[in-house]
Amino acid sequence: xxDAAGSEAGHSHSFSGQSGSSDDVEEIYDLLQKQCADLKKLxxxxxxxxxxxxxxxxxxxxxxxxxxxxxxxxxxxELIKLGESVCAIVTPFKTGTGFVLFDNFILTNAHLFKQCxxxxxxxxxxxxxxxxxxxFEEQHKNYHYFQLAHRNILYCHDDLDYAILELMPVxxxxxxxxxxxxxxxxxxxxxxxxxxxxxxxxxxxxGHPNGEVKQLDPTSIIEIENRVKAVEDxxxxxxxxxxxxxxxxxxxKQGIENILVGGNRAEKVTTYNTFMCHGSSGSPVFxxxxxxxxxxxSGYVYDFPKPExxxxxxxxxxxxxxxxxxxxxxxxxxxxxxxVKEVAKENVVLKxxxxxxxxxxxxxxxxx
Length: 368
Hints:
alpha+beta, 9-stranded antiparallel sheet, about 25% strand
């Protein structure tokens, strides 16, 4: 399996269905118009000849659901607002995505820093510089630049592939047009919006694919029993060609059977098809109610005749949160654990994890 690189959230949200102001609608229309054009170009490159239409027909039911859900302006507006928490992470070796967890802590994938850390330590090498950019929505315009508060990468876990970085509480905003520099605070976090991993339905990913400007991809969850069919659909354009055996061999080497029915990770990840692969590691994945449930992590890819992915995966955020809490229960983290409890106090699911017996919460930690 290959690395994918790798808002102001209220305590409760009610969706009235009201359309909002004309300025909001125009902003959303412009955003979708730009992204649809880019998506069409990408899809036509990904599926040669008439295979694009064949693939579209195969996924017609799912695309219909996505189109309907994204016809609700309030939902798109909600995702755009929550997307303010999403940031681009740039290391000397890889680019990725992250999002604000709470306060000035961001969550992303650990594999982004594989070449950046000291041997055997979750700590950046002294000569490694990591850049974190918020509001990177247009090239060279109005992005917010933040530095790390220190070189420690907190609560890293290989199996769950997550890392938490602490930012300086204040960053700088660059305006390329005016050359003005102003101070900016870290956007609101998404921790209180965490929810369980859905088995099916719509999903949305917000990230920075290939280190590009922030993008939103509406997609559909691929249920466990449908994953084989979904992979076959992606390989349909290459059936009967010399490439098919190479592709199958590549994704088999990556352990794709682990996420299929009966695989040891089949129940542990959420799968979908998205154009967000390399550079999107660490993106938040939202469900149909705009709850964030997954950390976009990886995909099963082949590199010939061109780099592509047949299916992509997300780690469940509640499992990551449980492991995070088990670390916070260790001595020296009392104030941070107290703060997490304050942020999560209105989220029933998170409160259940926080109130669990210490022995139960350490179940994942024993696997370190």
